[in-house]
Structure formats: C-alpha cells, structure tokens
Amino acid sequence: MKxxxxxxxxxxxxRIFLYRASLVRLKMMGVEKVFSYTLANETGVTSDQxxxxxxxxNIKGNKRGGYDINxxxxxxxxxxxxxxxxxxxxxxxxxxxxxxxxxxxFVQHNMNVVATFxxxxxxxxxxxxxxxxxxxxxKEIIDRFxxxxxxxxxxxxxxxxxxxELIRHGIMGIVNFAxxxxxxxxxxxxxxVNLCDELESVIYYVHKLMKVDGLKNIELxxxxxKY
Amino acid sequence: MKxxxxxxxxxxxxRIFLYRASLVRLKMMGVEKVFSYTLANETGVTSDQxxxxxxxxNIKGNKRGGYDINxxxxxxxxxxxxxxxxxxxxxxxxxxxxxxxxxxxFVQHNMNVVATFxxxxxxxxxxxxxxxxxxxxxKEIIDRFxxxxxxxxxxxxxxxxxxxELIRHGIMGIVNFAxxxxxxxxxxxxxxVNLCDELESVIYYVHKLMKVDGLKNIELxxxxxKY
DNA sequence: GATTTGATGTGAAACAAATCACAAAACACG
DNA sequence: CGTGTTTTGTGATTTGTTTCACATCAAATC
Lengths: 227, 227
Description:
Order of helices and strands of chain A: EHEHHEHEHHEEHEHEEEH
Shape of chain A: globular
Largest interface: A-B, 64 and 64 residues
Oligomer: homodimer
Number of strands of chain A: 10
Number of helices of chain A: 9
C-alpha cells in the first residue's frame, strides 16, 4: 500500500554523526582518548547528551577511562555500517544531480554513486567519471551492484514516477531532493531534503530574532530614558 | 562570543512549509477551501497536528468552515515572510555552489541570489545569470542589497573563515553546506545541511529495517514449521 | 591495598511534543 | 428560531526527549 510515510530521522542519530566527524578530526590531530565532555564541547551539546546518545545505540566506553578514539570509531562504523561500501544510484542529471555526482565526500564516506540516470539522452553525454544511463537500464544496474539506496534529483513532476520505479526494482531507501512528498510503501525509508525550506526556515528565524532584538533595543532605550 | 550554536529548526515549522506546498498545489487545481484533514491527508500527518501547528503560529480558520485557501496562504506569507523579496548571497562556486546558483526554485520562492563569490578568480568567468565576484567585494554587495542571509558552499577548510567574514558584514542567517559546525555568536542562525549524513541516515535505517524484516521472516518460517 | 578521585552509564525527574477529547462556534435544515 | 451536524481551537493527557543525579567502576594516589 502506498502512502506518505513521514519517516523522521532521529536527532540522536544526527548527533551521532556529528560526534563521529569530531572524532575523525581529533584523531587526525593525534588525539587518542576522548571524554564525553570533549565531544560535547566539540559539538555544542552537553556531556550528558553524548553519553545518553551512546547509551541509546549501545556504545560503551571505559568507566573513568573515557573512550579510546580508535575503539569508538570502530564501534560506530560497525553499528552504522560506515566501514562497508555502499553502492548508490542517482536519478536526474540536472544541475543538482550533476553536483551531487561530483560530490567527493560521498566516496570518502564509502558511498559510491555507481551510476547516474536521466531521461534526456543529451545529458548522457556529459561525464564526471560516473556513467550516465537512460532509465531503461535501471534494473540491470541496481541488480548488478546490489543497490539499496538512491538519490532522486529529478524535477518534482517526475519524482513520484521515478520513486515508484526505483522501489519496484528493490530500492529501500531514498534521499529525495525534489520538493514533493513521495507516496511509498511503509517499509521504504524516505529522507526529504528541501532546499527552499532550509532557506525559508533561516529567514523566518532571522526575522524573529530581529524583532526580539528590536524590542530589546526599545527596552534599553526606555531604561535609558527612565534613569 | 563565538560558540557552536545548535539552532535546531522546529519540526512544526518544517510541517508548516509542507502544508503551504500542498496549499499551493491544491489552489492550482482549483480548490478554494480546505479542512485540517485535507492538509493532513496531503502531508501524511494527523488533522490534530495540522490544527495544533496552526495554533502555535497563530493561524486561525473558520469554525466549521475550514480554511479559505487564499486567506490561509496570505496569512502564512505574512507570518513567514514568504511574500517579501529576500536577497541572498552564495559563497563558493564549486560544483554545489554552481548548482545552487542555478536552482530556479529559489527565485520562485522570492529568494534571489543577488551575487555569488569565490576566491578563485577563474570561477568568476563562469556565468549562470548571476555575477561571480571575488571575496573583496562582499561587504559592498551585502550593504547594497541589504542581504541578511547567506549560503555557504565552500570547502570545509575555509567555511569558518567565510562565516566569520559574513557575520562581520552583517549576515544574520546561514545555510551551511560545508560539513563542519560553525562557531558563531548566539544571535546568528545556522542551518547545517550535511549531504553525507542525509545519506548515511537512510543507509542506517534501511539496514535496521532489513534486519527486522529478516526476523519477521524467521518468525513466519517458525510459525509455518509449527503448524 | 585502602582511599580518593573522575568518569561512565542509566534510572528518575523535568521538560517538550504529539495525541486525545471536547467545548465553542457556525452552518444546514426543518 | 431551534436542533443537529461539522469542524475548529485548545486544555488535558500521553508519549518522547533531555537533563539531572548518583551508583558504579577503574585508575591514581597515598
């Protein structure tokens, strides 16, 4: 049954990825051991939260001894499948798709975009190291590379159709850059990235803050007048 | 004082933008009136939540009469500043920056990237309708266009430096595509978009789901054996 | 080896968000 | 105009998340 599955990614998981990024950086700097408050400082949360998050995902350190960085990173890699290679397909080679296909961080994180797809045969001439195929070869590639996760970067008008096809061919998780809510079976993971919303949220909070600051200034003025 | 401000964008705000997108679509289809459950169906939430969200942002409809689409959209535009034009600057004209500079949805949502910047003078030859300046002209442009919000799409190594400069010149909100946590004063809004994390989250949940499904299958198998 | 110290890990408490449930309002219809 | 119906708007309740507090352990010190 197809429906809108509002699958929200837990904040605790997002924070875990923050911790990991910090750990990688600290390791490069030669640090070997961290404490919950080290990570807390690095990521702008409390040390309680770090420990609670680790607890949620069953990550354990050493009483009093903190966490050995290598040990911790290894544990995280196992739990979050970060060490294994992941084959990804990318659908839509417009501006955004092209940029994503060239995004070198994916490869550094063991996520390989093994192929990209586009309906427009002209796009298929463009290259970026990664082959661009027509949609007809989708199943073949997904099967051959055992792909489970896809990125949708097509115009909103065709996003649902593309999602349907991906799922029909065995895709189980989608990062969707098209500004539409995809209707999918409940056992398919959807993560929507809406660029306009990201900007509009910031604009809203900036305005809100300006209003508050404005009030503060008025208050200060008032106080100045009074005393 | 500079620090990591973990400014999380409320889920209720994200949902509001979903509602709005649905409203725009419904309006285009000729619909004039909606009810909380209309929007609920469209966006995969409950009607309670729709009303509660509206309540949080002081959006009111008509008892029994539902919501007049035009009226509702207008209210939203006012509250979330969606009708006013917003001038944005974009720093970093690498692959991602280029794609963002060409992203037509921004303009459709009244967000104009008035200028882009890059340290590399060669990038400044490339065009996309939007001028590419060297960083030295940042202040001039920010002042002239009264820019309050910026997009950072530079490599992580220079992201902090760029953020500092933006804030020094009056930028109050940043959408940051570089995979680093920016240290900024507490009255600056930061919204981080980390593409690797978005993918890795999906990969994690897909694995988790596969494991659960695996268990389900084993259970079914067990039941089959038993009876 | 006993004692102090410093950090983890996790129940309990506080807080926040989502859901429930229903009073209040407005329209429909007799 | 009064009664029934429908949908909003929001307190009350439940559920989920974060913070607090401390027992527990391991290292350091005496």
